[in-house]
Amino acid sequence: MIAWDSAEHTLIEKWTNDRSLPNLNKLKKRGIYETLGSTAEWFAGSVWPAFSTGMPPEKNNVYNHIQWNPQEMKTLKPSPDWLPVKPFWRDLSTRGIKICVVDLPFTYETEPVNGAELAGISTLENLAGPSYYPGTLKSVITSKFGKPPSLIEPYGCVSYKALTELRDKLLKTVEHIENVTLELIKRVEADLIIVNFPSTHLGGHRFWNRSCMKDTLSDIEKHEFENSLKLIYARCDEALGKIQSAIKNYSHLFVFSLHGMGPNTNRSQILEGMVDKVLGRDSQKNSGILLQIRNSIPLTFRNKVKAMMPPNIQDFLTLFWRNKPLSDYGEIIPIEMDLQGFIRFNLKNREKGGILNESEYDDYCLKITEGFYGFKNIETDNSIVQDILLAKDIYGEIPYDSYIPDIIVKWVQTPIDNTNKFVSEKFGEVQWTTPGITVDGRSGNHMPEGFMIVDGKGIDNSIKLSNAHILDIAPTIYKLFDLQKPANMTGRPLF
């Protein structure tokens, strides 16, 4: 199983059709090719936990690489003490399946398994530091291939030079993952191999288009930039060919992406401003002096300092800037994330500092929902909110035992334009401080569909799968090993 993290299926189709990805094209022509539905429509960060557990986020409670912890009243990285999830490959390991797993996102620290596993090496959404099982693998891999390239995403609009340096690091990361995988294939006679290439993910965020670049480019530089993402996909295709040759005799080969990539539609940087307008409050003005001082430091400066620090300090600073003192949380808590807008209610008997009564819950849901739909782009007069999902509608009751947000906002699926404000007739205007771009400088962001190519025993291109979903992948693997899937998995075998 080979994952191209966040690879966009329309690019896969384009570049296999023109043979820019020759190895993937061969697999696609003779095997099953399908797009995959995912949990990313409402929770962009939920796809890897959904894949690894076979459960959607409302069941496994993991929807982002940092998320709200109501007991701590903070956004934190998920950890086993409050979000214990077990990936299916570790379960299979206990059932006698020998595994070889390389750097899958959203994975806790490695533990003893039947086989080998590496976690937190180069993946973007690591939940623990680099870890290896068996532990001797660390010295073996480091001595043979050196340390993996450090994938630190630049923040905001950056120079052409910074982006070309990032592209080169992404290409080197593919090479590193390829080398580690080939080494493990020689060392471990595994029944199940799962490998993730993270470069297509960060590459999609930063090389989707030129909207978030500082410099004016020459024609040659424009061509080089616009070819960057294709280079990354092509290098993954080269790695795929080498891994395929090294395995030689496989029963089934999966190449997949759990969600895709497209133009950035994220408006979450105005989420708190919209909440303030609807509720008639001013979070910045009414916050404590510590938070005011903290917020006075420009984001670009914060992120430049953070980028110079070791990974553990970076994690600390990320959470430090996102969290507030307990006294600064009101009845509604906006949680700015990478794509959708999340709102958590500071509910009594659920949140540690809960102040909202259960009797007020529905009124606040209605007030925020109606208020948000009224905000429009001042240039186009179109709503900036496409849809809103309530946690109460998912569970059928107020979710006291859930970690997911109470309100999930899906922004309109159009790219960020040059508008500098959004206006509600009832509540006034909210400023957009970076017209034409998002504050984080990502030109691309996630789309809900992934893809899957399957080759192997009993597989040919005449097989068509209907409504294939990422939740179906783990049950399919259990069936291929002639094992019963865990009862809590919600998907079904695809073939």
Shape: globular
Report the count of strand segments: 19
Mean pLDDT: 93
**Could you give me the name of the CATH homologous superfamily of the largest domain?**
Alkaline Phosphatase, subunit A
Q: How would you characterize the largest beta sheet?
A: 8 strands, mixed
Give the radius of gyration: 23 Å
Distance between the termini: 16 Å
Which CATH class of the largest domain is shown? Answer: Alpha Beta
For the largest beta sheet, what order do the strands appear in spatially?
2-19-9-1-8-5-6-7
Give the amount of beta strand, in percent.
15-25%
Helical run tally: 17
**CATH architect. name of the largest domain:** 3-Layer(aba) Sandwich
User: Please, how many domains?
Assistant: 2
Describe this structure in words.
With about 500 residues, the protein is an alpha+beta fold. It has two domains: about 1-265 and about 445-480, 3-Layer(aba) Sandwich (Alkaline Phosphatase, subunit A); about 270-285 and about 325-430, no CATH class. Helix content is about 35%, strand content about 15%. The protein has helices at about 10-15, 20-30, 45-55, 55-60, 90-95, 135-145, 160-185, 200-205, 220-225, 230-245, 270-280, 290-295, 300-305, 310-320, 360-375, 390-395, 475-480; strands spanning about 1-5, 30-35, 65-70, 75, 100, 115-120, 130-135, 190-195, 250-255, 260-265, 330-335, 340-345, 375, 385-390, 405-410, 420-425, 430, 445, 450-455. The strands form five sheets. The protein has an eight-stranded mixed sheet with strand order 2-19-9-1-8-5-6-7, with helices on both faces. A four-stranded antiparallel sheet has the order 11-12-15-14. Helix 7 (about 160-185) runs antiparallel to helix 8, helix 7 (about 160-185) packs parallel to helix 10 (about 230-245) and helix 8 runs antiparallel to helix 10. The longest helix is centred in the middle third of the chain and has 28 residues, at about 160-185. The protein is globular. The model has no long low-confidence stretch (mean pLDDT about 95).
